[in-house]
UniProtKB/TrEMBL annotation:
<keyword id="KW-0804">Transcription</keyword>
<dbReference type="GO" id="GO:0032993">
    <property type="term" value="C:protein-DNA complex"/>
</dbReference>
<dbReference type="InterPro" id="IPR039420">
    <property type="entry name" value="WalR-like"/>
</dbReference>
<dbReference type="InterPro" id="IPR036388">
    <property type="entry name" value="WH-like_DNA-bd_sf"/>
</dbReference>
<dbReference type="GO" id="GO:0005829">
    <property type="term" value="C:cytosol"/>
</dbReference>
<dbReference type="InterPro" id="IPR011006">
    <property type="entry name" value="CheY-like_superfamily"/>
</dbReference>
<keyword id="KW-0902">Two-component regulatory system</keyword>
<dbReference type="Pfam" id="PF00072">
    <property type="entry name" value="Response_reg"/>
</dbReference>
<dbReference type="InterPro" id="IPR001789">
    <property type="entry name" value="Sig_transdc_resp-reg_receiver"/>
</dbReference>
<protein>
    <submittedName>
        <fullName>Response regulator</fullName>
    </submittedName>
</protein>
<dbReference type="GO" id="GO:0000156">
    <property type="term" value="F:phosphorelay response regulator activity"/>
</dbReference>
<feature type="domain" description="OmpR/PhoB-type">
    <location>
        <begin position="123"/>
        <end position="221"/>
    </location>
</feature>
<dbReference type="GO" id="GO:0006355">
    <property type="term" value="P:regulation of DNA-templated transcription"/>
</dbReference>
<feature type="domain" description="Response regulatory">
    <location>
        <begin position="2"/>
        <end position="115"/>
    </location>
</feature>
<feature type="modified residue" description="4-aspartylphosphate">
    <location>
        <position position="51"/>
    </location>
</feature>
<dbReference type="Pfam" id="PF00486">
    <property type="entry name" value="Trans_reg_C"/>
</dbReference>
<dbReference type="InterPro" id="IPR001867">
    <property type="entry name" value="OmpR/PhoB-type_DNA-bd"/>
</dbReference>
Length: 223
């Protein structure tokens, strides 16, 4: 499931990205309100975690933008703990309100509760052509044959499958799979793609992992 975190405190944003990614979620982070607005308008998320005090556009305004588009669960995460702030957030359509400093265990419990409230989605299994990935059993097969992948290869394939047909930049891939800022001098993404192709694509037809020159990579069936 995809979670958007809009948080201008870099340490808190990195902490949430790392924790939620390790808990099995795909996490996008925006460090200001304008970037958050762009992601909300251009992408679909299963949950949004919003700080209230943000540069550019504040959390109250972002919540209104979310509610004009969808009923995506929204969790406010903020240092503002006055009763009137909580009431305002809930009246605007927030689903929950957690005050900083917070326990990650409590945040994770609230995230799971909010995600359970949403409509059920078939996100545990992915299939493109004859490639199948079972997220819960951490099992990958192609043409019925079991493939042995490392943890990072599994995470990379999961990301590509979950964004089927979408071109992902090296920066996006590095951020999601390695929780790192992309360095143009680092070829970690290209090496990982080559190794994944060697297992997933090289022995089989059709080829599913494609390079889009100057942009990144995508996974899709040519049919």
């Amino acid at each position: 499931m995809r979670i958007l975190v809009v948080e201008d405190e870099i340490k808190t944003a990195d902490y949430l990205r790392k924790g939620l990614s390790e808990s099995g979620y795909l996490v996008e982070v925006a460090l200001n309100g304008l970037d958050g607005q762009h992601l909300i308008q251009e992408s679909e998320f299963d949950l949004i975690i919003l700080d209230v005090m943000l540069p550019g556009i504040d959390g109250w305004q972002l919540l209104q933008i979310v509610r004009r588009k969808a009923q995506t669960p929204v969790l406010f995460l903020t240092a503002r703990d006055a009763v009137e702030d909580r009431v305002k957030g809930l009246e605007l359509g927030a689903d929950d309100y957690l005050v900083k400093p917070f326990s990650y265990a409590e945040l994770l419990a609230r995230v799971r509760t909010l995600l359970r409230r949403g409509p059920p989605r078939e996100v545990e299994q992915f299939k493109v052509a004859d490639l199948e990935l079972d997220l819960l059993r951490r099992r990958v097969t192609r043409q019925g044959e079991r493939l042995t992948l490392t943890n990072k290869e599994f995470a990379l394939l999961h990301l590509l499958l979950s964004r089927e047909g979408e071109v992902l930049s090296r920066a996006q891939i590095a951020s999601q799979v390695w929780q790192m800022n992309f360095d143009s001098d680092t070829n970690v993404v290209d090496v990982a793609i080559r190794r994944l192709r060697a297992k997933v694509d090289d022995p089989y037809q059709p080829k599913l992992i494609h390079t889009v020159r100057g942009m990144g990579y995508l996974l899709e069936s040519p049919e």
